[in-house]
Amino acid sequence: MFGYLKRRYCFLLLNHIYDNQTSKIAINKKNKYLRKMGNSIGNNVRVMGPLHSYCRLTIGDNTFIGTEFRCEGRGNVYIGSNCDIAPQVTILTGTHEIGTSEKRAGKGITADVRIGNGCWVGARSIILPNINIGNGCIIGAGAVVTHDVPDNCKALGIPAKIFPIKDSKEDI
């Protein structure tokens, strides 16, 4: 019970007192509270507010997390270094087995999500449970990622289709 209340208190501080403050002091305080809640936060991580998460977060160095970031479920979310996560991104770490016709949402399942180094996740995209996104990937705005994304690819659409990224800017 105390752990739940402590976590809620930390989110209150994060989401209301330090919401969208970009000063170095506010960013350091946000990171401090995220660490107190059991998350692993790298150096020079900038988390804008509000943030909603029951997942365990591991965030690499030099990563930016936009406003209204949501992690639903009780799994782990690993975000690499040098990533940009746009506003209103949702990561899901829980789902269900398919049950009988009397109750289709069967036994609950928890699965982790991994986002590699150097990724750019577009606004309002959704990443489903048990997904691995490789290094150097782009997830397009509004995409729903239902399958793993290999290194240096972009995932666009609903459900997301995967395309390789060439090194030229015109390909993006």
Give a brief description.
This protein has 172 residues and is α/β, with parallel strands linked by helices. Helices cover 17% and strands 34% of the residues. The longest helix has 16 residues, at 2-17.
Strand content: 25-35%
Main beta-sheet annotation: 7 strands, mixed
CATH domain class name: Mainly Beta
* Global geometry: globular
Describe this structure in words.
By secondary structure, the chain is of the alpha/beta class. The chain has one domain (39-171): 3 Solenoid (UDP N-Acetylglucosamine Acyltransferase, domain 1), CATH 2.160.10.10. The protein is built from 2 helices and 19 strands. It has helices spanning 2-17, 24-36, and strands at 40-41, 46-47, 51-53, 56-59, 64-65, 69-72, 76-79, 84-85, 90-92, 94-98, 105-110, 113-115, 120-121, 126-127, 132-133, 138-139, 144-145, 153-156, 161-164. Strands 2-5-8-13-16-18-19 form a 7-stranded mixed beta sheet. Strands 1-4-7-12-15 form a 5-stranded parallel beta sheet, with helices on one face. It has a 5-stranded parallel beta sheet with strand order 3-6-9-14-17. Helix 1 (2-17) runs antiparallel to helix 2 (24-36). The N and C termini lie far apart (48 Å). 31% of the residues are buried.
Features:
single chain; 172 residues; alpha/beta; UDP N-Acetylglucosamine Acyltransferase, domain 1; seven-stranded mixed β-sheet; five-stranded parallel β-sheet; 2 helices; 19 strands
Topology:
Elements: H1 2-17, H2 24-36, E1 40-41, E2 46-47, E3 51-53, E4 56-59, E5 64-65, E6 69-72, E7 76-79, E8 84-85, E9 90-92, E10 94-98, E11 105-110, E12 113-115, E13 120-121, E14 126-127, E15 132-133, E16 138-139, E17 144-145, E18 153-156, E19 161-164
Parallel strand pairs: 1-4, 2-5, 3-6, 4-7, 5-8, 6-9, 7-12, 8-13, 9-14, 12-15, 13-16, 14-17, 16-18
Antiparallel strand pairs: 10-11, 18-19
